[in-house]
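Worked Example 4.2. Consider the chain below.
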Amino acid sequence: MKNEPENNSNHFRFHLPFTHMFSVFGDDWFALKAEAFARFFGTPFFLISQTVIVVVWIAINVLGYAGFDLYPFILLNLAFSLQAAYAAPLILLAQTRQADRDKAHAEADALHREALAAASEQRELFASQQTAQLLELMQQNTRLTEITKTLSERIEALTREIHIKLVNETR
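Applying the procedure from the previous section yields the following structure tokens:
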């Protein structure tokens, strides 16, 4: 159809108006690495690795192989506190950046749905116009067929009349 975009292969065309949007925290090297690191916190690999490290840490200190962090495990507690101090802001950073992306995608999807709805309405209008034109043409065809039938009957009657007159004149 004429009203549809010419470049149907660009399925991200509704996302283009949002390309100017940058994340609240920017897209520099630090922001990207911080987000990647924050995403790593939630992976099974990180959780299993951290559990193994804590178990080994406690085992080494309880069994007496090393005495750098004895029973109240203050150094381990400090390490967890340091990790939490950095993990929480990094996780919030990743969530905020993801929320920005989700919002931009939702707006682009809404624009896409609106464009599809408008195109669908145009197709329906075009189809109804074509249907009306087709019905009108069919009515005209019916009228022409009736006229043709009437004229054919008239010609047939006149032909019979002429034929009868010719037969009567030849007698």
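The two ends are 71 Å apart (CA to CA). The chain has a mean pLDDT of 85. Compare this with Example 4.1 before moving on.
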